[in-house]
Amino acid sequence: MAEEWIEEALADLPPSANLVYKVLEYNGRLSQKRLVEETRLSSRTLHYAIRQLEDAGLIESHPARYDARQTCYTLVNDSGCSTYSRDALVNPEWVRERLSSFQQDDPSARLVYIEADDSGGAFIPGSIVLDLESDLPDPNRQRLPDRPELEELLGGHGVTEDTSLLLYDDGEGHHAAYVYWLLAYYGHRDQRLLDGGLEHWTAKGYPTTDVPGSFPSVDYTTSGTFDHVRAYRDDVVRAITQDTMLLDVRKASEYHGELDDGSDLAASTPIQGHIPGATNIPLDRLFDGHQFAPRSAVEDVLAAADVTSNRKIIVYCGVGARSALGWFVLSELLGYPDVMNYDGSWSEWGSLVDVPVETE
Prior knowledge:
alpha/beta, Arc Repressor Mutant, subunit A, Oxidized Rhodanese, domain 1, 3 domains, 5-stranded parallel beta sheet
């Protein structure tokens, strides 16, 4: 669909349809509820605009990721494929426009900064801070929090089951993605990542603070667990002999069993290499700096490795954090229907004595 054709099609549509198109062009996939919020159109006018855009072949609908009863809308690009599922990803400008609301005691939305042991002291104003070391089990510790732990943690920060969470970190995004995946495992439905994280935010000169947001405690009840997003050792064993893709997102040196200073392999892991049959796509090939690469570039990388949406995929890395970010790209951005994160990853597999390992 050429840009000229899109412009001609929009010229024949009412202003409300043009507004909806521009909002989707800026934000990506949005639900009807969020379209009402962004456009400030009445429900009746919005439905009319959506119908006009669908009839013109400019947008398409999809079930919401965690609730098939809800419908989301995306633009159709030149190849007929939807853009990234941007209801799972937001940019700094979107956050900046809504910064005052995040700083208020409104449990409908919270900014969540995931702090690792090497993090600095600055973050976006209004953020609650979750520390991987003290609040959440670091992936290296090989344990997920149990339900009471997580419920107490989130409720203590003013988060309810219906709160829209926007997660970010100051690194390469895998700490935030790991928490996103963890919360998806426990059934939290409404969450997003900040594209580029804190680095992208500060590069734009947007404000930071060292004072975390503090909000009254509320009750939080998990609805999980949802094992369709989590792979266990037995799933990996079966995948070796079945038509399940094992996707290793570590660096090529790790994949081939060559330790280096950039590895997140546990020092206690006695065996190096990769799971037999695994395909290696280093995670940085899916990114442009700290931001997600354009969808077309990501799809080219995946297609070259025969990673397709019609296959069951298990993603792994060293300790389950980078693979959580790979899972996010495939499941949440591209909408692949059957993707699991093996959070045990190489720190578990490489510590076993009765499993096969390859280095070529």
